[in-house]
Amino acid sequence: MLTDLVVALDIGGTKIAGALVDGDGRILVRAQRRTPAREDGETVMRAVEAVVDELAASSLWPLAGAVGIGSAGPVDAGAGTVSPVNVPGWRDYPLVERVRRATGGRPVTLVGDGVAMTAAEHWQGAARGYDNALCMVVSTGVGGGLVLGGALHPGPTGNAGHIGHVCVELNGDPCPCGGRGCVERIASGPNIARRALENGWRPGPDGDATAAAVAAAARAGDPVATASFARAAQALAAGIAATASLVEIEIAVVGGGVAGAGDVLFDPLRRALRDYATLSFVRHLTVAPALTGTDAGLLGAAAAVSPRRTGGAPVSLTG
């Protein structure tokens, strides 16, 4: 028997994914489109509507009572708008209202993608059973979210825990967000690859110049590739330690494409964390890879709709 069926949307700079998700976290129907991130805002919205239309063609669609959105940010859950750094056509874009119309007037919950991933990991992943956690997405960008006191903590606008734009290098490179020396500017996949290329690493015959290729080179012993991941790990460690000092988290869960590098990332991350997390109440912080994988955004968007799925904490509802 299906219970608590919801529409889940995961909107990022690379893809727009949608699903019908039940109350046990089962993804029953899927749809996906490429994000036309460099196009105008209406073109991006048409891709969202195409995903919704594909889900609506399912016989299960009438059973879905609400919509959850995890979007690249910043988001403003109160206003129902999004301004993703990596989707320039959306600035204060009224995403909640547009999705409400596209889904036949269903109520819509909006959170940042990092908060969505956190909801997923607390519901079904590595943060399950922890009352205080930071969960991070390290991919094209770096996002995050918090569980505090056993409940998801999205903050007033749905962006709390957005560790990617914490400054860890005071005179660092400018970041697209407008700041300098952000975790994202150092630790995101494109920036890992950029730094490796700038320091002399060269792709193999296939021409793959992504962070995944840099990780493969590091695994094979390339010193430049190894150093680029070590620098990313240091930035992540500094941001995690700062967060732990502020709110006393017990675990930091790291997911996203860059986390797929495995020990190439996690070994230097744990070493660097020993240099930053030195206070007695953060010294025993656990670092773990995420478990919900590529479905984290969809599961988290679904989880954000229901307080029962997020540990009993109400999240910001718009609509």
TrEMBL record:
What is the similarity comment for this entry? Belongs to the ROK (NagC/XylR) family.
By its UniProt entry, which InterPro entries does this protein fall under?
ATPase_NBD, ROK, ROK_cs
The beginning of the lineage is: Bacteria, Bacillati, Actinomycetota, Actinomycetes, Kitasatosporales
Q: Supply the Pfam families for this chain.
A: ROK (PF00480)
What name has this protein been given in UniProt?
Answer: Sugar kinase
